[in-house]
Amino acid sequence: MTVAELLALAAARLAAVVADTSPRREAQFLLARALAVPESWLLAHGDARVAEGAAAEFLAWVQRRARGEPAHYIVGSCPFWGREFAVSPAALLPRPETELLLERALALAPHRQPRILDVGTGTGCLAVTLALERPGAFVVATDASAEALALARHNVRRWGAAVHLACGDLAHHLQGGWQVVVANLPYLPSATLAQLPLEIRHFEPRLALDGGETGTQVVRALVEDLPRLLAPAGCALLELGQGQAEEVAQHARSRGLEELERIVDLGGVERVLVLQRQQEGPAPSNSGATG
Ligand SMILES: C[S@@+](CC[C@H](N)C(=O)[O-])C[C@H]1O[C@@H](n2cnc3c(N)ncnc32)[C@H](O)[C@@H]1O
């Protein structure tokens, strides 16, 4: 079959499942990955014949996509901040809105050897990018999922990033003194998970999505610990869901933290809350820190 024939066939098979995006664009994305060519090459070579093996692999991918599996899981990688990250159903796919958090974290991180902590690292996209964009940074990333952490380790090695990985609940097992804490923790209310689109509900890990009854349970638990974790004047950047910023900001204020900023995403959602530990004042208790 030719490139043009394969694209037409795939677009027809995908029409039902990806009607809200573009079946044609999705078909192009998958065929370009299957043939290891840029998508623009496909447009210029519609008459090119595709080898049988490659066509069969592509059509198998189209079948998986037609069953709802996200295209990035099928091809095994996803872009974040201009780099490709290995992905698997062990971790959430990196999302464009998380780049908002990253951008501000880079602006806030001190230039000389900042100490940066990523809580709930998933693929490691935030930790790896921060380490690569701030050479000399001391970066630690945690996750409660051993499978997610194995994926993060793969990405750390793939990019040769200086990131230390630690498995555990939030950062309870770590000492304080962080100048920047970034966290994109699960923030969806448990009751809403059943209404998520199939491709999220069936394929992305529940541990990455489920934020408890109100959605803010995991984030609030981290905020509790921020006065201990943050260095004086250190900042925390928390990714949140719709309508959660005020509640989490209030909780942070009750813990003595200052709200620096709310970053609004393209959809008008207050997506990232930036908090700061005050410069002065009594040192918070470090009890429970083991290393
Ligand atoms: C929404 S995903 C975000 C992953 C990644 N930071 C990103 O931005 O793509 C949340 C991650 O937090 C992890 N997680 C959930 N609860 C946790 C907890 N109590 N302690 C540490 N990690 C947790 C999940 O395993 C998942 O990898």
Topology record:
Elements: H1 3-14, H2 23-35, H3 39-44, H4 52-66, H5 71-75, E1 77-80, E2 83-86, H6 98-108, E3 115-119, H7 125-133, E4 138-143, H8 146-159, E5 163-167, E6 178-183, H9 198-201, H10 206-209, H11 217-229, E7 230-239, H12 245-254, E8 258-264, E9 270-276
Parallel strand pairs: 3-4, 3-6, 4-5, 6-7
Antiparallel strand pairs: 1-2, 7-9, 8-9
Helix pairs in contact: 1-2, 1-4, 2-4, 6-7
Bound molecules: S-adenosylmethionine (SAM).
Give an overview in words.
It is built from twelve helices and nine strands. It has about 290 residues and is an alpha/beta fold. The chain has a seven-stranded mixed β-sheet with strand order 5-4-3-6-7-9-8, with helices on both faces. It has a two-stranded antiparallel ribbon with strand order 1-2. α7 links the parallel β3 (about 115-120) and β4. Mean pLDDT is about 95; it is low at about 285-290. The site of S-adenosylmethionine (SAM) has 23 residues, from α7, β4 and α10. S-adenosylmethionine binds next to α7, β4 and α10.
What spatial order of strands do you see in the largest sheet?
A: 5-4-3-6-7-9-8
Approximately how much beta-strand content do the residues carry?
A: 15-25%
Total strands: the figure is 9
CATH topology of the largest domain: Rossmann fold
In short:
40% of the residues lie in helices and 19% in strands.
Summary keywords:
about 290 residues; alpha/beta; Rossmann fold; 7-stranded mixed beta sheet; two-stranded antiparallel sheet; about 40% helix; binds S-adenosylmethionine
